[in-house]
Amino acid sequence: MKLAIFGASGLAGETADLAWELGYRELLFVDKEPLPAANQQHQGVNIVGEERVNTLHAGGFAFVIAIGNSELRRKLFRQFPWLNYVNLIHPATTLAAREEPDLLRRKGNLVFAGSRMTTGIQCGNFGLYNLNCTIAHDCQIEDFVTVGPGANISGNVHLKEGCSIGTGAVVLQGRSTDDKLVIGSDAVIGAGAVVTRQVGDGLTVKGVPAR
Question: What region, left, alpha or beta, does residue 60 occupy, with left being phi > 0 and alpha being psi -120 to 50 degrees?
Fold first, then answer.
């Protein structure tokens, strides 16, 4: 299996390891600009420029976007919407019995080791679920959401498009399935924050409780 990974940073390296574990044996990193010949590898994986994307697509490569910034992932997808984007889900992820089919109907999600998802979760596309994060029951997750390492999303939470939950942050439970605690589009929750109430679109909050 062949996979092209947008990005050439540490997250891209982690993604390459995840892809290898899932059986991909021909891997490439795709960076924005062609690199000098002396710098065409990262962690032993070749790097090519974005001008090669259509050739890779024609050659049967699948694609993922391994970039931590939600807005950059969204921009890349809008630049290359026709590609075959796949989900990469680590074998050490725990999914409720009814969750895996829903997640697999989406595309472009990266789910790293130790992630836990329980029941009634609606997933989006191009989500980034970092190491040891948890998503509890009846959450709704839109596209391009980033959940940091060790973050905990309680039940009845709605993560709107492009929001980012920082490392170790906690989002407390919404009132019910019909009255979820909403984290707004492109909102940023700081590392270690504890969110106790709704966060509006585009806001950045931090602290305990988050403000």
Answer: left
